[in-house]
Design brief:
alpha/beta
Length: 190
């Protein structure tokens, strides 16, 4: 082998960029912040609930009422695999708050997904939702703050598996997006 032969070898391919997944309670800001982050990174943004509505042709609350939570979670699983495939071009994924409860999704955190937990207190989350909480099957009811607090208690350990955490209570969406873009840029070397 000539001395130049090693220089002629192709560099090993770099690992694909991970998808950026925004995690957190309803009202944390995933659907609002996701497009801001995606625009700044030059990546597509997928709001998973919106994608499910587009595929099924019915609102999430109707899907829950007609088919049950299990069918909804199956849609989440299938569309995550389709729209954020392992090794595919990076996207910003804004899933529903319960997405994190799927063990398969959690297994991808740190492997093909960079998780960012958007931490929000239940009271702030409900205030951000305004009257929309009535259309959210798992928080609708007479005490939405208590319902969101119960979801937080059930899911907090899963959310904390994200590599990064941004507290959103006192920040406007643009500030949250700036933090996330800085984190993503540091992780991906951009």
């Amino acid at each position: 082998m000539s001395p130049d032969a090693s220089a002629e070898r192709a560099a090993p391919p770099s690992a694909p960029r991970p998808h950026l997944v925004l995690l957190g309670l309803p009202g944390a800001g995933k659907s609002t912040v996701g497009p801001l982050v995606a625009t700044r990174l030059g990546w597509p943004c997928v709001d998973l609930d919106a994608a499910i509505v587009a595929r099924t042709g019915v609102p999430i609350a109707t899907l829950f009422a007609r088919e049950g939570e299990g069918v909804f979670r199956d849609w989440e699983r299938r569309l995550t695999a389709e729209l954020a495939p392992v090794g595919g071009p990076p996207i910003v994924l804004a899933p529903g708050a319960g997405w994190i409860e799927n063990p398969g999704h959690r297994a991808r955190l740190g492997v093909s997904m960079l998780g960012v937990y958007l931490r929000v207190s239940p009271g702030v989350a409900v205030a951000r939702m305004g009257g929309e909480f009535a259309a959210r099957p798992l928080v609708a009811g007479p005490d939405p703050v208590a319902a969101v607090a119960a979801l937080q208690a059930r899911r907090e350990a899963f959310y904390l598996q994200a590599k990064h955490e941004v507290s959103t209570d006192l920040l406007v969406p643009d500030e949250v997006a700036s933090f996330i873009v800085a984190l993503a840029s540091r992780e991906t070397g951009d």
